[in-house]
Specification:
7 helices; mainly alpha; globular
Amino acid sequence: MRIGFGIVRAAMALLTIVAIIAQFATSVNFISGKGGNIAGYVVNFFSFFTIDSNVGYVVVLAIGAYLLFARTGDDPEWFTALRAVITTYMVTTGVVYNLLLRNIPLPQGQTVEWSNEVLHVVGPSYLLLDWLFAPGRAPLRRRVLWWVVGFPIVWAIYTLIRAPFGADPVTGKQPWYPYPFLNPQMSPNGYLSVAFYVLLIAAVILCVGYGVVWVSRRWRGGRPLPADGD
């Protein structure tokens, strides 16, 4: 079972790397052909929560595959905590994409549709299954939730500060927001709508994170659970 999950993790990490590169290369070629700002696009590309989450996903799968191949028993607690954090982000990415972004037209000429599905649907679905069924998961303390909320808070602050100064790499039009629901100019009630979506996504992250930690404490795989107050 460990070897099987190790192979699948390695394969999924490779698939995701290919998907990220395919989308990045396609967009760079498109923007270059239009005489656009490549440097600006690179910054924009890595400003997407989806891309950041999937980069973390690749790292977690690579480490996780190595641990399944190289050792027996439970994973180190630090890795289970990191795995829980990235699982939360990836599941949130899948939920937000399918609820808020699925029906929004994608940029024509630079969107790789299969890559989009891998990053928003296949990856989140696999990592949830991996969290539920792969061996090695250690029980987690509830304080891991502080790790879970840390990056999204920093990302949201960064996005809202940078976006008014960001620009579309082809047209040069400002502002540039990674997601339309964060753009007060496109929201029916301006920043009030943006605040609603930020709070909604924060609630999703907390709920998913709590569920991830809960699973680790209930399906413990032979190790004693941390004290309930931890």
